[in-house]
Amino acid sequence: MIWKRLLPPVVLLLVWQGLSASGIIPAYKLPSPVAVAAGLADLIQTGMPPGHLLHVHIYYSLQRVLWGYALALLTAIPLGLLMGWSHTIRGLIEPLVEMIRPIPPLAWIPIAILWFGIGSKSAAFIIFLGAFFPILLNTISGVHSIDPVLIEAARVLNASRRFIFLKVLVPGAIPSILTGMRIGIGIGWMTLVAAEFTGVKQGYGLGYMIMTARDIQRSDEIIAGMLVIGIIGLGIDACLKTVERQTIKWR
Amino acid sequence: MKQTYTAVILIALMVIAGNGYSSETLNQPIRMAYLQSDIHHLALWVALEKGIFKENGANVEVKGVFKAGPEIMTAFAAGELDMAYVGEAPSTTAVANKAARAVVVSQVNTEGSALVVAKNTTGINNLSDLRGKTVAVPGHSTVQDFLLRRALRENGIDLKQVNIIVLKPPEMIGALRTGQIDAFIAWEPYPSKADTLSVGRNMATSKEMWPGHPCCVLISDHGFLVGHPEDVKAVVKSHVQATDYIHRNPDEAVKIGVKYTGMDETTVRQAMQNVHYTYELSIQGEKEYVQFLSELGYIHLDDPDKFVDYFINPDILKGILPQ
Amino acid sequence: MALKLEISGLKKIYTGAAPGDAVQVFEGIDCIVEKGQFFTLVGPSGCGKTTLLRMIAGLEPITAGNILLNGERLNDCNENIGLVFQEYALFPWRKLLSNIEVGLEIKGVPARERQAEAMTYVEAFGLKGFENRYPKELSGGMKQRVAIARALIANPQVVLMDEPFGSLDSQNRDKMQNFLLKIWGERKDTILFVTHNVDEAVYLSDRIAVMSPRPSKILNIFDINLKHPRDRTSLEANRIRRDILELLDLAE
Q: pTM for this one?
């Protein structure tokens, strides 16, 4: 029943509103749900900074995520397939990957700005870094998770290496690849906002919007912005889950 | 179901407990803050270095050095600061938006910023040349942001035609050097630094843009003022004495400026020349701030004059200065 | 030359990490499978019958000896040898029809043609109506039929079967045995079959080679001249069974 799942958040909201209205939580520390809702209305109608409307911020942020994510897909999946397939290639590349992976994407911001300048390109780069590693690692593990007997079945049918790679390895790795893709977009979306904190040229982006609200001490808009980001992240994940379900009907 | 309710009630209780806790102890130091490498705040550094606070019985602790005004105001909102040197625009915005309860107890300086363009650029000579260009400001609702927009508006330039972006001042010089921005407006000593590095040159000082415009102020948390008026008075008195010191001993002041900004003497000296250190409150200037911030939509006040009355408190100064 | 699969002097050693760890699986296998024969290998677990099949299929390297198909040495996978795995090994992401036609796909046969060919197997093997199902939706018996179709569609000269009915219950196993006999009767493939189930071997085969435990060799080859359909309970069948079991017991 849907209402059962909605009940805890609703109760939480009511308690929150009660605590705020009674003054136990002062407004400057945490605005009430009603204030946040008003803040959201402001973001939609007036915008923050004034004149920069919410839906345009969303559009710009989504664009940057799409670019960074697409780049991550195009590089991590082929590389992961190759690394899963060939021990030699894996041995060559793995040390480099393991060294770079622990570095948080945000630490790359100064370098990203030096290389790509202030603007969407450096933000997309940060997102690319966030999404790349989960996709890569899950692709490699996807290849390794294929039952070896399936490869033997193909060999026995006299399949070429190319056939085995394209028609056995790739389809067999797809479930793991999709998992990696879901994790990757989640991380990418998370890093976007922080990446946008440091200067975006066009003046649009959800991170930029929140930073501006912070400058002007509009905590109601800050929280409303955070909610928007959370909901969009949820939506993106739901989309990918559907894609996953449709693609892996055979599981 | 029961578990969920229990959890929610527990969380509520924790929140109540957390907010109820008050750390009221005696003999706490006066927690102050200033902006990193902001030569406007020289008086504070002088007061620290020359023991002026101690002379006046003020136990000052520098709780934080911040990168921009809005961040100082957030610290006030969190109850982390008692007094601070900060821009008048971010403090006005924070208090008007009810994020913090603070009042201005003294002026710190007027003027002291500049609009900087790339050294070798020839195309930008006046404000109307900024059309279609990218200009960096230290943050929305900073004094510099306000200065720029006010100047553009006065010259009949549509704000939409100028691409205003936000950068922290240390990043501005690098961005100008690599051509990612066409100009920036920041507080001293950054314009002077750009000049000594041959990266940029002043297109206009803030004095030229708006003579006598208020810039930084000394603010106090409202609750702190009510609870510890003697401490506030001691700090303001120290500030007045330190400001006088700067005028009487410029060379010594330069040395202190070098120490706190980490920049070379030439830059600091040049920067100081662009700043007018004063403790005289500029109420008219504040009224302009309030009006402009309202127009930009950053604040919404029912009664602007009443706000200014509340926000600027001249009483402490009056009690210190000879009539 | 008529089709002949000849195995001579075959040895297989798995080398271990340390010198003393080497495992000698068999010490010299000789046998000949003629065209159209149903040739079965029986033996205790671990005697290497699966390993032998895998070596013929090209999945395991040969330590010593020869495997000759029509006089030519085999040492790698090739299209003349088909293999039906014990675990079916169907591609889970391919539908039933698509699994069957894989062998033709590898050969480069165009889609329409290979689909039509695969459909004939679907009909002949009683799989009609399930062409578009995924392996996870099929029963064990159906999966094994698909696996057999997949191997046969490529028309290999010799079909290897590694305990194909081992994971079926006895009823389904009986059904599948009859099914296999029917197919074989129509097509007359050359089959090299491996099982540990002596009853099964006696029911199906023309010739049965009995293997000893490891390091194994062939103890004896029995010729079964009973006509199909065979009576499992006949005296003759029982006699052969007893002989084989005695031989296996002795070898232990």
A: 0.81
